[in-house]
Amino acid sequence: MKKVLTLVLALAMALSMIALAEDDRITISVMGIDWGYGPSANSSMEQWWEDLFDVNLDIEWVNYNDYNEKANLMMTSNSIPDVIQINKTNGAYYYPIFTSAIDNGLFLDLTPYLEDGLKANNAVMSKWPQSIWDQATYKGGIYILPRSKAEVSQQSGITVRRDLMRKYGFEDEPTTMDELKDWLIDLSNAATEGEGQKIYALDFYGDLMNNARSTAFAAAFTGQIDWGWDEDGNREYIMFDPNYINFLDWMKDLYDAGVLDPEFALGNSETSKWKGGRSVAFLTAWYNWNQSADRVTNRIFDSVCPDSYEAWCLMPVEGDNGIVIAVNSSDIDSCIAINAACAEDEAKMAKILQVFCATEEEYPGYNDVLSYGVEGLHFYFDEDGTRKKTDEQKIANTQGYVGAWNQIFLKVDADQVASKFMRAGASRASDEAIERAYAIKDVLVAFQAETGMAFSNQNLFSETYNSSWAALTSDVNSMATKYIMGEITADDWTAFVDGIVSSAEYQAILSEYAESAK
């Protein structure tokens, strides 16, 4: 009994020491975005990170639908956590409520920490170009910590049904916008007749003309993206570029040919859904057609579609003033900001930088965990090297969803071809697909480097834009839609645009952007 009692006391002492050690850990409060996958607090993933960094993470995951509202409320009430993920608003990380909170001293200027060796010595940050830090700068200070450098010009992929191309003899790929238009019309008609159901030219829907389904197409005609520069070097919104009507004419030809969903301007995502087999093509991220070589292990199309459906991506085609490309509004893929009060506690600040600036070099295996979770806890390797999950691991993986953590933790720069197309095992794409993906990337990189295409209003501020843009442009999308549908003329469109461009509000926006740029 004495031996048993001794063992019990020893165990109790050990447990109490562990509890005491955990109580001695620094606690960091965090708020991050749940993109719909349901990560939960105190998950196995959270506990694993806490043990790795010897820290307590008091983290709250907020659904993306509610995130901006909650984050903004916290900022306006001066009640932010130690670390908070910053979400893009209207394409910018530095949006009005956030910048107002910065001006009020709520967030920490990270410049001294970065210049004190972190930027130069960190294995990930040291590889970033100066443009990343320029994009992270507001009024001479850096208030956001980028989490990685995003892939180039992401929404630039003309993804197509290659099985239809082969079946109906359309394997010669278009190289210009005119060729693409004719190719889409003819293949849509051939597929509609051959498949016995309507196959549209484009999976296109939504009441915004300047969105991910169209912007890259418009850029081929205008030579600019969102806010760019006109011939005189002045800032200009893409839909007010004189060449934008050529894009509308291109869309109108598709509509008149009957290969565009008659209700394309409505929020109906099913009628012409590409992944449901209802369209020839759609505009999306150039790396999101990563179908496995067997077309089964990693599906692209809906589960009800046959395995014979094959995904492909065209090379960027040329327009009058550029190629089909949508440069990123920011090359920062995600970011966090830190409560200014944390700087008052040196130990806490050091721990925050340790946790949120970790790298593979300091913690071997870190990159794999950020990508896949913990082996044995969230997945196991099958005999062919493919990562698989048991039912228990699926639950653990959902509760600690890795995709949420790699939005707030530092990670290596994105290589979507390697991570999506070149996965180990049966989920790997074909060699031909891998070669095509890298070829597309090379063209996008070269074009952006040669032209310098970018958002001309990046990190610039206009009070008039913030207060008046929505009202000023409230009819732009409906007028563009009416033009495509033949309800207004080219003269009507031009007069409408001229009315906005000549308005006091629009001119004030241009003036304020120019002043901000100084």
Q: Which regions are unreliable across 5 or more consecutive residues at pLDDT < 50?
A: 1-21
- Residue-averaged pLDDT: 92
The CATH architecture name of the largest domain reads 3-Layer(aba) Sandwich
Largest sheet: 5 strands, mixed
Strand content: 5-15%
Shape: globular
Q: Provide the spatial order of strands within the biggest beta sheet.
A: 2-1-3-13-6
Q: How many helix segments?
A: 20
Number of domains: 2
Count of DSSP strands = 15
Helix content: 40-55%
N-to-C span: 81 Å
CATH class of the largest domain: Alpha Beta
In CATH, the homologous superfamily of the largest domain goes by the name Periplasmic binding protein-like II
Give an overview in words.
This protein is α+β, with helices and mostly antiparallel strands. The chain folds into two domains: 203 residues, Periplasmic binding protein-like II (D-Maltodextrin-Binding Protein, domain 2); 233 residues, D-Maltodextrin-Binding Protein, domain 2. Helices cover 43% and strands 11% of the residues. Helix 12 packs across helix 14. The chain starts with a helix and ends with a helix.
Summarize the structure.
It is built from 20 helices and 15 strands. The N and C termini lie far apart (81 Å). By secondary structure, the protein is α+β, with helices and mostly antiparallel strands.
List keywords for this structure.
518 residues; alpha+beta; D-Maltodextrin-Binding Protein, domain 2; 2 domains; five-stranded mixed β-sheet; four-stranded mixed β-sheet; 20 helices; 11% strand
Tell me the layout of helices and strands.
Layout: H1 2-23, E1 27-34, H2 44-53, E2 56-63, H3 64-76, E3 83-86, H4 96-103, H5 111-121, H6 130-135, E4 137-138, E5 141-142, E6 145-146, E7 157-161, H7 162-167, H8 177-195, E8 200-202, H9 215-222, E9 227-229, E10 235-237, H10 244-256, E11 279-284, E12 311-314, E13 335-338, H11 346-356, H12 366-372, E14 380-381, E15 387-388, H13 391-399, H14 402-408, H15 416-421, H16 431-451, H17 463-472, H18 476-484, H19 490-501, H20 504-517
Parallel strand pairs: 1-2, 1-3, 8-11
Antiparallel strand pairs: 3-13, 4-5, 6-13, 7-11, 7-12, 9-10, 14-15
